């Protein structure tokens, strides 16, 4: 049944090969079965996957300290974990959350986009595209349990989920703040935001690089629920149960119907998008902006 409606990213085989290569580059696969749940529990260096209490639901904990920045190695491990879950028919839903205190994800790793060579930028961007496509078109129910700050690429990742739960903490701000760094959110970041909060709200949020505090994020529709931090996980599981009450095939076809056109826009021009990214990020002015931003982050500490 699920096979009939399974969405596929066309360049899947290519990425799989890429992911395996990256896995090899990491030195060892690191997948370790553990505990009484046997093969259903696995972990890599930076991604911990364990079955939730509800069964058929996995909890994926991101643990790339200090801030879950999306480095190339982290993206690769994330992709491999997701692929394993997609292929394991025991699972119908995944709660994605952070193992780093107060931060869901700081977004793309700035060190992957600063001071490197064009080949590296291209490889990195391809992995970013792939993670977005895999998450956005996932057959699983994805619930983002956002237990901390969620800027830029972190927000993009959360926006690919079917539901977002945000912790009610002053640190839990969320948004696409790229313009504050002097960079531009690519069209598919923009499309994902527009699909969630509409055109006018997106235009304002993107131009101003807004990071919404919880109450405003809820009001604009960027997240679906705001709850105290200690209830984020239980709320995510409760929402998940609601979504899992719907037959998979009907829900999956509906999800595909809603999302395919947006994903296809990138799929049709992936190479051009990579070239755009490489030439944009390689500009002296953009490298200077990133350098200043990285210095500001360091100075913040004091
Ligand atoms: C003509 C038009 C053409 C258009 C073409 C378009 C082409 C594409 C354009 C390019 C688009 C690129 C898209 C990028 C999206 C992104 O995701 S960029 C990343 C944006 N992220 C942020 O702005 C978040 C920055 N971080 C923070 O604000 C804070 O760290 C935090 C709020 C997340 C956490 O704060 P705190 O807990 O206080 O930790 P810190 O002390 O700040 O940080 C600890 C440590 O981590 C380092 N760090 C933080 N964020 C990042 C990051 N994103 N990448 C790498 N490293 C990061 C920080 O520097 C500290 O390091 P040290 O301990 O000092 O070494």
From TrEMBL:
Entry EC number(s): 5.3.3.8
Pathway(s): Lipid metabolism; fatty acid beta-oxidation
Gene3D superfamilies linked to this entry: 2-enoyl-CoA Hydratase, Chain A, domain 1, 6.10.250.170
EC supergroup of this enzyme: isomerase
GO biological process: fatty acid beta-oxidation
Signal peptide residue numbers: none
Alphabetically ordered keywords of this record: Acetylation, Fatty acid metabolism, Isomerase, Lipid metabolism, Mitochondrion, Transit peptide
Catalytic activity: (3Z)-dodecenoyl-CoA = (2E)-dodecenoyl-CoA; (3Z)-decenoyl-CoA = (2E)-decenoyl-CoA; (3Z)-octenoyl-CoA = (2E)-octenoyl-CoA; (3Z)-hexenoyl-CoA = (2E)-hexenoyl-CoA
Family, similarity comment: Belongs to the enoyl-CoA hydratase/isomerase family.
UniProt function note: Key enzyme of fatty acid beta-oxidation. Able to isomerize both 3-cis (3Z) and 3-trans (3E) double bonds into the 2-trans (2E) form in a range of enoyl-CoA species, with a preference for (3Z)-enoyl-CoAs over (3E)-enoyl-CoAs. The catalytic efficiency of this enzyme is not affected by the fatty acyl chain length.
Protein name (Swiss-Prot/TrEMBL): Enoyl-CoA delta isomerase 1, mitochondrial
């Amino acid at each position: 049944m699920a096979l009939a409606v399974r969405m596929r990213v066309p360049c899947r085989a290519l990425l799989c090969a890429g992911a395996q290569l990256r896995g090899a580059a990491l030195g060892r696969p690191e997948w370790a079965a553990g505990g009484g749940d046997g093969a259903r529990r696995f972990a890599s260096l930076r991604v911990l996957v364990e079955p939730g209490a509800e069964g058929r639901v996995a909890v994926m904990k991101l643990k790339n300290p200090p801030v879950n920045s999306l480095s190339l190695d982290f993206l690769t491990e994330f992709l491999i974990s997701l692929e394993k879950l997609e292929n394991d028919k025991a699972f119908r839903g995944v709660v994605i959350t952070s193992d780093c205190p107060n931060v869901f994800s700081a977004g793309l790793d700035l060190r992957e986009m600063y001071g490197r060579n064009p080949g590296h930028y291209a490889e990195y961007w391809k992995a970013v595209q792939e993670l977005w496509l895999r998450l956005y078109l996932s057959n699983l129910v994805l619930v983002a349990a956002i237990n901390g700050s969620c800027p830029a690429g972190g927000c993009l990742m959360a926006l690919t989920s079917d539901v977002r739960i945000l912790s009610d903490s002053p640190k839990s701000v969320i948004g696409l703040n790229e313009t504050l760094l002097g960079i531009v959110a690519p069209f598919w970041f923009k499309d994902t935001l527009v699909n969630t909060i509409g055109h006018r709200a997106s235009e304002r949020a993107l131009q101003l690089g807004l990071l919404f505090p919880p109450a405003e994020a809820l009001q604009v529709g960027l997240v679906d629920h705001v709850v105290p931090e200690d209830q984020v996980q239980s709320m995510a599981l409760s929402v998940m149960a609601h979504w899992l009450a719907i037959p998979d095939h009907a829900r999956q076809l509906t999800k595909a119907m809603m999302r395919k056109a947006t994903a296809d826009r990138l799929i049709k021009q992936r190479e051009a998008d990579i070239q755009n990214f490489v030439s944009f990020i390689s500009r002296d002015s953009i490298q200077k902006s990133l350098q200043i931003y990285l210095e500001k982050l360091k100075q913040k500490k004091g």
